[in-house]
Write a structure and sequence with these properties.
The complex is a heterodimer of chains A (235) and B (217). By secondary structure, chain A is of the alpha/beta class. Chain A has helices spanning 10-13, 35-44, 64-68, 84-91, 102-114, 177-183; strands spanning 22-25, 49-52, 72-77, 96-99, 118-121, 135-138, 141-147, 151-162, 167-168, 184-195, 214-217. Chain A contains six helices and eleven strands. Chain A starts with 9 loop residues before the first helix and ends in an 18-residue tail after the last strand. Chain B is of the alpha/beta class and 217 residues long. Helix content of chain B is 17%, strand content 27%. Chain B is built from five helices and 15 strands. The longest helix of chain B has 9 residues, at 4-12. Chain B is globular and about 50 Å long. The chains are: A alpha/beta (235), B alpha/beta (217). At the A-B interface, helix 4, helix 5 and helix 6 of A face helix 3 and helix 4 of B.
Chain lengths: 235, 217
C-alpha cells in the first residue's frame, strides 16, 4: 500500500527547520519556485541559512524575501542578476556567495541524490571556478573535480502530485526541482493539485515519491512572470 | 556597420538544417528571427526546453514557460521539456551543434570573458561556462568595441575568463573573424566598413587576406 506523505500546509511541512541549516530550493528565475515554503521560512524567521538555488529571486519575491530579512548567510547559485539587494549584500561582504556553472550545479545536486560523491567536468577549467580543484585529463581534455551537494531540507514545486509524493512538473517549471528533490534529507513538495495515490499515470511521473517526504497543496500560487515578452495578438 | 539585428541575420546564415542550437541572451536570441522558413532547426534553452518557439501572443503567456533569459516563450510542435541535469547532458555530451553567445572580451587564442567585472558587476556565469567548455562550434555575437570605444578583441582577456581556447568565430558590427593559430583572421567586413577601420578596432593580432569580401545580408 502506498506510503502517505501528505501534510496539511507549508507550516506543517517546515516542521524541524532550524537556523544554520542547508536548504535547496528549486526553480529557475521565478519559474517553478516553492513560493509557499519561502513565505513560511520568512514567517519563521530562521537565520544563518545556506541556500542552494540557481537564482536568488527578485527584490520582493522568491528568495529575495529571505535576503531582505538577512536570513541567508550563504548562497550557492549560478546566476544572481535581477536582484539589487543581493548584489549589495554580496559586494559589501555581508553575504557569502558561491557561484557555480549551471550545469555543474544541476549535476552536483543530481550526484548528491544519486550517491555519487564527485565527478569530473570540463566546465570552468582555466577559470576562477577551478581554483583549488583537482584537474585531470580525459581523452586529452582537462576536467575539474566537482563534489556532490546535499541539503537538510529540499523545497520543490510541482504542478501535480499525489499523496504518495509522486510529482509531475509543467513545462519549464521542472528545471532544478527533480534533482533537488533527490538531494534533500527531507524533501518538501508543494503542488498546485494534490490527488489520491493511483490517480496519476505511473508512465508520466517525473519524480518518484521515494524522493519526497512531505507534500502539500498550496492554496494560491502567485507564479509571477519575471520578463513578460509578447507579440501582438492576431485577430 | 551592422545593427544588432544585422549581426543576428549574419549568424543565422551559419545555421544548417538538422542542427540543435543554443542561443544566449541578447543579440544571440535575435538569431531565431532570421532562420529561413522550412529549415529544420530546433532551439534549445538550457532551463529545459528543446523546440523553443516565438514569444506568445498577448494574453496567452504562461509563467511556467520561459527561456533562459526568463522571458515568456512558446513551444513548437515536437517540443520537449526536461530538467536542468538533462539539459546540460545535452550540452556537455555534445548533442547540441551550435552555441551562440555574447561576450565582453574575446582573445586571439579563443578565450572568452562574459560573466564578471570584479568589484562592479557580479551576476554569475549561468550556463555559459558549461556551454563554452563543451560546445564544438561556438560563435560569439558582440559589438567590436565597448561603450568606451575600446576593442573587445584582444591578445589576452583582462576580465575573469568564462572558458579557454573555445571560440572559433566572432561576428561583430564590423566584421566576421575566425580564430586560429593564436590570431584573428578577417573573413568578411560589414557593408561600408573598410579593412583599416577593422584593424584600428582590433587590439589583438589580426591576419588580413588579400581579398576581404563584404558580407551579404
Amino acid at each position: 500500500m502506498a506510503i502517505t506523505k501528505t501534510v496539511k500546509d507549508a507550516q506543517a511541512a517546515c516542521e524541524g527547520i532550524e537556523s544554520g541549516m542547508t536548504l535547496m530550493l528549486g526553480g529557475f528565475g521565478l519559474c517553478g519556485i516553492p513560493e509557499h515554503a519561502i513565505a513560511e521560512l520568512k514567517r519563521r524567521g530562521v537565520k544563518d541559512l545556506v541556500c542552494i538555488s540557481n537564482n536568488a529571486g527578485v527584490d520582493d519575491f522568491g528568495l529575495g524575501l529571505l535576503l531582505q530579512g538577512r536570513q541567508i548567510r550563504k548562497m550557492i547559485s549560478s546566476y544572481v542578476g535581477e536582484n539589487d539587494e543581493f548584489e549589495r549584500q554580496m559586494l559589501s561582504g555581508e553575504l557569502e556567495v558561491d557561484l557555480i556553472p549551471q550545469g555543474s550545479l544541476a549535476e552536483r545536486c543530481r550526484a548528491g541524490g544519486a550517491g555519487i560523491p564527485a565527478f569530473f567536468t570540463p566546465a570552468g577549467f582555466g577559470t576562477e571556478v577551478a581554483e583549488g580543484k583537482e584537474v585531470r585529463e580525459f581523452d586529452g581534455k582537462p576536467h575539474i573535480l566537482e563534489t556532490a551537494l546535499t541539503a537538510d531540507f529540499a523545497f520543490v514545486k510541482a504542478w501535480k502530485g499525489d499523496t504518495a509524493g509522486n510529482l509531475v512538473y509543467k513545462a519549464t517549471a521542472r528545471n532544478f526541482n527533480p534533482m533537488m528533490a533527490m538531494a534533500g534529507r527531507i524533501t518538501v513538495a508543494e503542488v498546485e493539485e494534490l490527488v489520491p495515490a493511483g490517480e496519476l499515470d505511473p508512465n508520466e511521473i517525473h519524480t518518484p515519491g521515494i524522493f519526497v517526504q512531505r507534500i502539500f497543496q498550496g492554496d494560491r500560487f502567485e507564479k509571477r512572470i519575471e520578463q513578460r515578452t509578447v507579440r501582438p495578438a492576431t485577430a | 556597420m551592422l545593427s544588432k539585428n544585422d549581426i543576428a541575420r549574419r549568424i543565422a546564415q551559419e545555421v544548417q538544417g538538422g542542427w540543435y542550437v543554443n542561443l544566449g541572451i541578447g543579440i544571440p536570441t535575435l538569431v531565431a528571427n532570421y532562420i529561413p522558413e522550412g529549415l529544420e532547426v530546433e532551439f534549445q534553452s538550457e532551463n529545459g526546453i528543446l523546440g523553443m518557439g516565438p514569444f506568445p501572443e498577448e494574453g496567452t503567456e504562461d509563467a511556467d514557460l520561459i527561456n533562459a533569459g526568463k522571458q515568456t516563450i512558446t513551444a513548437m510542435p515536437g517540443a520537449v521539456y526536461f530538467d536542468s541535469a538533462t539539459s546540460f547532458a545535452m550540452i556537455r555530451g555534445r548533442h547540441v551543434q551550435l552555441t551562440v553567445l555574447g561576450a565582453m572580451e574575446v582573445s586571439s587564442n579563443g578565450d572568452i570573458a562574459n560573466w564578471k567585472i570584479p568589484g562592479l558587476m557580479v551576476k554569475g556565469m549561468g550556463g555559459a561556462m558549461d556551454l563554452v567548455a563543451s560546445a564544438e562550434n561556438i560563435i560569439v555575437a558582440m559589438m567590436h568595441t565597448n561603450k568606451r570605444g575600446e576593442s573587445k578583441l584582444l591578445s589576452a582577456c583582462t576580465l575573469p575568463l568564462t572558458g579557454v581556447a573555445c571560440v572559433r568565430r566572432v561576428v561583430t558590427n564590423l566584421a566576421v573573424l575566425d580564430i586560429r593559430d593564436g590570431a584573428f583572421h578577417l573573413v568578411e567586413r560589414a557593408p561600408g566598413v573598410s579593412v583599416e577601420e577593422i584593424q584600428t578596432a582590433t587590439a589583438g593580432p589580426l591576419v588580413v587576406p588579400d581579398e576581404v569580401p563584404e558580407m551579404r545580408l
